[in-house]
From TrEMBL:
CDD domains: TLP_HIUase
Residues covered by the Transthyretin/hydroxyisourate hydrolase domain: 19-132
Task of the protein: Catalyzes the hydrolysis of 5-hydroxyisourate (HIU) to 2-oxo-4-hydroxy-4-carboxy-5-ureidoimidazoline (OHCU).
Classification via InterPro entries: Hydroxyisourate_hydrolase, Transthyretin/HIU_hydrolase, Transthyretin/HIU_hydrolase_d, Transthyretin/HIU_hydrolase_sf, Transthyretin_CS
Residues annotated to bind substrate: 27, 65, 130
GO biological process: purine nucleobase metabolic process
Assembly and oligomerization: Homotetramer.
Protein name listed in UniProt: 5-hydroxyisourate hydrolase
Length: 133
């Protein structure tokens, strides 16, 4: 990674949430290599009337982050959301096999005024997640 790429990654990580940053963000770290999961396709959905409806699709940046996961101007509402990471596609691009073709994380957004961050620690044969800050 070049010094300008590292500087941009640090800047993106430290920039406070602003009007254009999504109230729900995600981050992929490939734990098996200790590197960001860049260019991972991500989809976010919200449950309405028992079915999930797609709100947006995005791709992680060079730092493995999706700071604009929800569409610009989207006002988060209480409810159940699902984030899907296209992990098989990601590992295939790396020339690796994986066990989980995608990872879906379902969570409940109870306080729309708060920021919700969904980190994914990933390897070809395992993953873990938690509510980040």
């Amino acid at each position: 990674m070049s010094s300008s790429s590292r500087l941009e990654a640090v800047k993106n990580h430290l920039t406070p949430m602003s009007a254009h940053k999504s109230p729900i963000t995600c981050h992929v770290l490939v734990a098996s290599t200790g590197t960001p999961g860049r260019d991972v396709n991500v989809k976010i959905e919200k449950m309405d009337n028992g079915s999930f409806n797609t709100l947006s699709t995005a791709q992680t940046n060079a730092d493995g982050r999706c700071p604009t996961l929800l569409p610009a101007g989207y006002k988060a509402e209480k409810g159940i959301y699902r984030v899907t990471f296209e992990t098989k596609e990601y590992f295939s691009k790396q020339g690796q096999e994986c066990f989980y073709p995608y990872v879906q994380i379902v969570f409940e957004l109870a306080n729309p005024e708060q920021h919700y961050h969904i980190p994914l620690l990933l390897s070809p044969y395992s993953y873990t997640t938690y509510r980040g800050s």
